[in-house]
Amino acid sequence: xxxxxxxxxxxxxxxxxxxxxxxxxxxxxxxxxxxxxxxxxxxxxxxxxxxxxxxxxxxxxxxxxxxxxxxxxxxxxxxxxxxxxxxxxxxxxxxxxxxxxxxxxxxxxxxxxxxxxxxxxxxxxxxxxxxxxxxxxxxxxxxxxxxxxxxxxxxxxxxxxxxxxxxxxxxxxxxxxxxxxxxxxxxxxxxxxxxxxxxxxxxxxxxxxxxxxxxxxxxxxxxxxxxxxxxxxxxxxxxxxxxxxxxxxxxxxxxxxxxxxxxxxxxxxxxxxxxxxxxxxxxxxxxxxxxxxxxxxxxxxxxxxxxxxxxxxxxxxxxxxxxxxxxxxxxxxxxxxxxxxxxxxxxxxxxxxx
Amino acid sequence: xxxxxxxxxxxxxxxxxxxxxxxxxxxxxxxxxxxxxxxxxxxxxxxxxxxxxxxxxxxxxxxxxxxxxxxxxxxxxxxxxxxxxxxxxxxxxxxxxxxxxxxxxxxxxxxxxxxxxxxxxxxxxxxxxxxxxxxxxxxxxxxxxxxxxxxxxxxxxxxxxxxxxxxxxxxxxxxxxxxxxxxxxxxxxxxxxxxxxxxxxxxxxxxxxxxxxxxxxxxxxxxxxxxxxxxxxxxxxxxxxxxxxxxxxxxxxxxxxxxxxxxxxxxxxxxxxxxxxxxxxxxxxxxxxxxxxxxxxxxxxxxxxxxxxxxxxxxxxxxxxxxxxxxxxxxxxxxxxxxxxxxxxxxxxxxxxx
Amino acid sequence: xxxxxxxxxxxxxxxxxxxxxxxxxxxxxxxxxxxxxxxxxxxxxxxxxxxxxxxxxxxxxxxxxxxxxxxxxxxxxxxxxxxxxxxxxxxxxxxxxxxxxxxxxxxxxxxxxxxxxxxxxxxxxxxxxxxxxxxxxxxxxxxxxxxxxxxxxxxxxxxxxxxxxxxxxxxxxxxxxxxxxxxxxxxxxxxxxxxxxxxxxxxxxxxxxxxxxxxxxxxxxxxxxxxxxxxxxxxxxxxxxxxxxxxxxxxxxxxxxxxxxxxxxxxxxxxxxxxxxxxxxxxxxxxxxxxxxxxxxxxxxxxxxxxxxxxxxxxxxxxxxxxxxxxxxxxxxxxxxxxxxxxxxxxxxxxxxx
Amino acid sequence: xxxxxxxxxxxxxxxxxxxxxxxxxxxxxxxxxxxxxxxxxxxxxxxxxxxxxxxxxxxxxxxxxxxxxxxxxxxxxxxxxxxxxxxxxxxxxxxxxxxxxxxxxxxxxxxxxxxxxxxxxxxxxxxxxxxxxxxxxxxxxxxxxxxxxxxxxxxxxxxxxxxxxxxxxxxxxxxxxxxxxxxxxxxxxxxxxxxxxxxxxxxxxxxxxxxxxxxxxxxxxxxxxxxxxxxxxxxxxxxxxxxxxxxxxxxxxxxxxxxxxxxxxxxxxxxxxxxxxxxxxxxxxxxxxxxxxxxxxxxxxxxxxxxxxxxxxxxxxxxxxxxxxxxxxxxxxxxxxxxxxxxxxxxxxxxxxx
Amino acid sequence: xxxxxxxxxxxxxxxxxxxxxxxxxxxxxxxxxxxxxxxxxxxxxxxxxxxxxxxxxxxxxxxxxxxxxxxxxxxxxxxxxxxxxxxxxxxxxxxxxxxxxxxxxxxxxxxxxxxxxxxxxxxxxxxxxxxxxxxxxxxxxxxxxxxxxxxxxxxxxxxxxxxxxxxxxxxxxxxxxxxxxxxxxxxxxxxxxxxxxxxxxxxxxxxxxxxxxxxxxxxxxxxxxxxxxxxxxxxxxxxxxxxxxxxxxxxxxxxxxxxxxxxxxxxxxxxxxxxxxxxxxxxxxxxxxxxxxxxxxxxxxxxxxxxxxxxxxxxxxxxxxxxxxxxxxxxxxxxxxxxxxxxxxxxxxxxxxx
Lengths: 354, 354, 354, 354, 354
Known about the structure:
The structure is a homopentamer.
Chain A lengths: L1 H8 L21 E7 L4 E6 L14 E7 L4 H11 L3 H8 L6 E4 L4 E11 L4 E11 L3 E6 L7 H9 L9 H34 L7 H19 L2 H10 L7 H66 L8 H4 L3 H22 L4
Parallel strand pairs in A: 3-7
Antiparallel strand pairs in A: 1-2, 1-3, 4-5, 5-6, 6-7
């Protein structure tokens, strides 16, 4: 959360449009893959020099260039000049703390949003920034690190499954967006299972790690919420763009993606409600437990105080205490003590403290 | 709640428009019933092969096809191609975690929303998805499982009661929608009675199952709220559709359905307010109880501490303790003890602790 | 609150426009009174057969028909057919759980809202539904039970006071609406006095009936809020109607009624704020009281534990305890005990526990 | 707060436009002062009979009539008929519980809002209603009681300072409005100082008057908020009036007054936030204090319970207790007791309870 | 916070447009620096007499006048008359408690907003007001005190880096605005680190300085929020200005600045959420700690009460207590005591109190 401010504060004072990669620096070089297809044919190719992509720009076919790794600023800049992208767009691509947004630059549309990767070892969700530029016949995607999220789309292109090869660059962009949104449900499912598990375990449990656990989940939800909230504007903005770049037939699919976004947001909101409900339940558990402890203490005190006092009485050393000389004095006092104890127990039973 | 994310995550990566039924799989085959009517006549028919419906498509009369059971994807697909429905609509029908929505596709309107079934044995409310497609002279409804919610409409058609046979497919769609919304009041009534019962029982009760019970009710309200909230947009959208499919006379009925939706939402909101008020009352009860327990403990301690101390004093073995040799020493000390006790009791009376 | 859902669930499944009275059934027959007036003259008449009203429909003068008691569905239906009212309107009139609303049907305008009756014996506020239909020269009002709320208007008509006889049916409708809104202030005044009284009594009081009392007031405010909130739309809608039915001169009065509605809502909102503030104050009182009880307990324990221990020491039976044989042993130990007690008291004084 | 409802409930049932003064009745007669000025000259005059004002109505110069005291309904009515003011306006002037508002009546504009007077003796803020009517060449102001808030404006007119004599009646109305808003900052300053003082004093203090003090401040803020909130609409409405009454040059000043209003509202909102934060801090203080008390109690109990028990053991009267006959038995047991005490103290030190 | 109201209350009663500096008075005289540049050349100059600036007003080149120190009202007034600035603008510049805003005066645009300076010694953030006026070929900036925030822009002008010398006065204004917004991230980073540090330290810690620390952070966030919230309107307003002053090419950069503003606001909102979460965690810690203390106390009481009672029994002085004469009486009673203690410990183990 706070790291966003941290990273952005590095660029304070630089002229806008200066290309600085603010993400974590990784060692691999950027990996570029290219798909070029139309209904009838497709070509898949790994690119080692960015210049290899350039001839595809002016071809009739749809070209999808995917770049894994943003630290190679040089590559980004070459694409910039060749595809005529505004420097601010490229600054936004490199700024991995960018808020999700969509911008229509006339000749091309720029989309940036977050993908979430779940690391099962650390039980942690980490955001990764995905940027997309699409023009009339090309889509360029930028990922922070290598991932396999787009594989279903790659398969669909290879096998000509679905509509992806029949429709334009806008549909490809939609399909990629939809894949990312679909992935959110996987993250939400994991989170939801965790919340349900916690709810079952929490009932009546006063383990003192709960506030920490609930707080952690809350932070995770705040993180997700922060990156997913602007998504509605992104998908909504995609729908509203009036441009030749967007085919009418794609609109109906965008409406569907929009619905999914709303559903993601609804789910996050109900998670928030449930988590704050869990905190209330935990606090109640603590109070209930405290009540029980106090009752226990009080019962012990209330029973033994009078008994100990009675024993103290007959432990006094007065010369003239007739009871001490009675033959049945000792048994008599024991009976009295038993009676007091019984009355106390009956009283507590009636008060429902026992 | 979380199951929605769970089910949707199954379809992540599939091309949009792929027909996958994400609901629970049941064993019965889909059951199809057909009504065909105009003002003068009606025909009711159980359909065993989906092809039997097709001739009705082009008839002048209003045709209502109801399909119970969504798992028979084959049936859905046949209807798709014959009635010219967009694949995304059919995907939405099968996706039983769909958010309620209305979509105008020009030739037909698609509505999906939730119905709630109360299971009295488990004391549980389960949502069921209802989808509806209506065109100029037909209505197709899809239910997850067999139910009798639409029976009142069936009776009205059979007996030519109300306006349903005099008006068009849009009115039939409205009537079905209205029936579902009316059913919400039954669920809300049950919920409201439970809340009132709980409120009466809760006063002064510190039973430790309350946080759980209140939390359960809250979850139920969150569930209802989540599915009913979008309904306003659905009914509002229905009203705003500008199309030949919607007769002007139906508009006035839709306004009425809209009012009912708002009323359902208002009721849910006041239930939320009341439930969070109940939690506050419960927490207060706990604190009050704690105060009482503490007072009890303190009174016992405050009375017996000085008495036991006094008894301890005269239990000391000093050789030179003149009081021990007084003839009236023992009665004297008992009187002192009684006096201390009385003063304490008076003090607590004044403090209103007793 | 919950009774609304209860009553509405009775009509689930009936065709819209079916006339069913969902309110409580009372024994008296409906009472119909009629006023017919223009600037120069007025006629007041009790009606025993609904047909007597019909001739007034087409007269030039303004006719006000008031019906007390909704259970006589037959009367309502006759008025329906004669005045050409849409069946849904009449369904809404009978449905006493209707949300306040205004609807423009072209020839007439339909308004329904709540009036509140305070029952001083039960110290309870009960809502009553008032419906109004007004056309170019008539106003029909429907009340659940007989009441005297409209008497001020009746007096104004009888005595030709104010503008009511000089202006049209729309002004009469406004005047009736304004009378109802004015009555809200009476209810709010009572509520406000109760809140102020409670605030004064609450300070430092930890009586355990407070949570219940505050919760009751909160429920009352939720009830009022629920019925009054939609009123803004009603009066706002009245202002916005563009129709020949509404005279321009009436508009300026409606603006005034709108201001009053906003003021009612503001007052209710500040009551809510004050009530939730009261709950906080009560919880603080409980905590303060608990702190005091605990301090008291601790002081007692802290003073008597060392004393009792010391007495216990010299109650031991060791043969070789030189102090026991000192002549001044007993006074000496008493002085030590007094010193310990004094030091403790000084310590607690310094800690401000005393 | 509640008194608003109380006063308004007095007028329930009266025809709209009936002139009833609902404020507190004071004994002095209304005091009327008049300013008549243009750029070159000004005249200041105390008026004893309302008719003296009338000639100024049609003069070219700007006339400002200020009326202190609303109880003299007769005066108000005469002005009514002479200046052609709508009866509802005059009703609003007399109704001192009126919500702040602005209304454009074509020939004149009516503004009503609240001024706040601080009474340092009672340490209380009381609202006073100010109403203003301005036409093309006159401004009439109505105050509940005599005050000196408008003196700065009077001085400016007398000394021809600022723009007030160069511009029209609209600018004078703005200047009066601005003076009132400026006065809010004085009230807010006092409130802010009180809050800061309280914040400094509150830290760690568990005095049981805090909930009351904080609640009082909260009520004061609720009161201010309630009367200042509608002000935004008033100033905003003033800006939006499209009328010959408003000079373009005044618009830029109104924008400034609008900014000030927003700033007043922002300040009130942050006060609310700070006050609810203070309540949290106080509750934490109570809990911290409770923890300390409990620790203290527990330490005492934990140290003296074992010691008293040990002393009890050797106070038993068994014949065969060899330790009792040891020569070093008594010193030995004292050493054991000292050891137990030391160990306990070390344990509590480690637990950081000491 | 409250100081804003304090300072503004000083000007209550003065005519609008009166120039009064409400900030803290400092001793240095205002320092004026001037940049004059176009693509080909630039001139940097320190100004000692304000008249030196005037010739630049009508030059073709872009002129940037920066004034450090607002207390020299004379300087401000001279600039006023020469550049034809409205008196209200200059009043706003001097009023250092001004809410951030943008105003279009036709010939020039006025912007005022806050910069934040972090004082590491006091660990405090103090706001400083920055005002900006820009016309077709000049920008005038006003700072409360000397600072180096604009140095990056100065360097860019000197070294002709970025676009600043190629574009107009509007771009320079944007660049200055962007520099200020970038600085916010530095402040947010510091705040975020503090919050994360606190979160790590807080877990399980019940130190009683936490409420104070959290409250301080909350106040800081409220302060930031109050000054940054209006920024959205400022940058949004900048974007929407339709004027020859704004070049189309600048619009795309403003969109970027707008995104940054939203991101700053999002960050502040999540800080608020996290801080209120921290308060909850702290309260839970207190309750958990209380529970532990209580358990400890209860265990001690429950173990030693019966033991002490038993010892008391055999400390009684009855003549006829056979156990006292048994040879094995003493060891026997010790065994019984050990057994009771063991059973208690087992019981507490089972209850998980140990």
